[in-house]
Amino acid sequence: MESSSEAEIRPTVQRYTAPVFILGTFLFAWSFWLLPRWLNLQDAVALRHWVAFGSFAPALMALALRFMDRQARQRWIQGRWLEDLLLSILAVAALYFICLPYASSTPFQVSMLGWGARVLLFVAGGAVLWMVLRRVTLPQTVQGWLIWIVAALAYPLLMLAGWGIWTLWTDSAQIHFPEGGAGNFGLTLLASFVYLFLFGGALGSEPGWRGWYFSHLLKHHPFWAAVLITGGLEALWMAPLVFNGVNPAVGSLWQELAVRSLTILTHAVLLGWVYVRFQGNLFPVMLLRAGMLMTPLFIDVTPVSLGLLVVLAAGLTVSTRRIPGFQPE
User: Does residue 252 belong to any structural domain of this protein?
Assistant: First the structure.
C-alpha cells in the first residue's frame, strides 16, 4: 500500500532520478566524512567506521531509488526476503570479525560510538549484499569462475608489472610482506580482499556508481562519455577523504588530488568496461574494485604503473563502442 506522501514524492524523484542520486550520494557520504572532523571527534576508530559507512552512500541511494519503483519493490519483497536480508546482515558481521585480525589494525573493543558505527555498517553492508545477490548471475561453468578470478587478480598483476619495470631503474618502490611467513601472507591477502570488498568501497560504491548511475548514462550517452562523467563525479565525491586526513597527502595537497583524480578516472574506465562486457553483472566489477583497493597495501604504485593504467584506460575508451546484446537497466 502506497502512502499519500510517497505518492506525491515518487513522480518527482522518477523525473529527476540522476540529480537525486548525485545529490543524495554526496550529502550522505560527505556528512559522515566531514562532520565528525568538524565536530572534533577524537575517537579515531569510530571515525574510521563512520567513513566506511559513508562509502555506502552510492549503493544505498541506488537501493532507495529502486524501491521507489512499486513493481520492482513488489518483486524484491516476495518469498523469504526478510529472512534473506537478516542472513546477509549476519554474514557481513561475521566476515567482519573473521577478517579483522588479519586485514585491519582496528581493535575488537571500541567505544559505544564505534559500536554504533559498526552496527550501521553491518546493516548497510547486509542490505546492499542482499540487493546484489538478488540480481547477480553466477557462472555456470569452470571457465566462468576462472574469468571471475581473473577479474579479481587483473589489477594487482598490472601494478606488479609496472613495479617490475620500475625497479629495473630504481629500487625506490617496494613490495610489502606481512610478518609470519607464507601462510600468514596468504591469510592476510585473502582477509584484506574480503574486508575491502565488504567495507572498503567495492560493495558500497559499485552497485551505485556502475550498477545504477553509469547504467543510467549509457541509455543516453556513448561509452566514453558515460565513463568520463561517472569517473569525474566519483573523483569529486572522494575528494573530502584527502582533506579530512583519511587519505593523507604525501606531498602537495593539490598534486595528491590530481593524481588520485586521474587514478579514479582510469579506474572508472576499467570498471565500466568490465560492467558492460559482463552484461551488467556487478560481481566481477566489485571483484575488480576490491583488487584496486587491496593492491596499494602490498605493492607501491610507481609512475610506470600509473602510465600503464592510463594507456590501458585510454585504449579501452577509444575502442569501446556499443556492446552487442547489452541493455542498460
Answer: yes
Asked if residue 318 lies in contact with residue 227, where contact means CB atoms within 8 angstroms, the answer is: no
Domain of 188, in residue numbers: 4-319
Asked whether residue 325 is assigned to any structural domain, the reply reads no
Q: How many CB atoms lie within 10 A of CB 302?
A: 20
Which one-letter DSSP state was computed for residue 299? B
User: What does the pLDDT look like over 144-184, one tens digit per residue?
Assistant: 899 999 999 999 999 999 999 988 887 776 777 777 666 67
User: Within a domain: residue 328?
Assistant: no
| Distance in angstroms (rounded) separating the CA atoms of residues 290 and 282 | 12
Residue 324 within any structural domain of the chain: no
| AA identity, residue 118 | R
What would the pLDDT profile of 284-323 be if each residue is shown by its tens digit?
A: 999 999 999 999 988 888 889 999 999 999 999 988 875 6
d(CA 235, CA 229): 10
User: Which pTM was predicted?
Assistant: 0.90
How big is the chain by its Cα radius of gyration, in Å? 20
Q: How many residues does the chain have?
A: 329
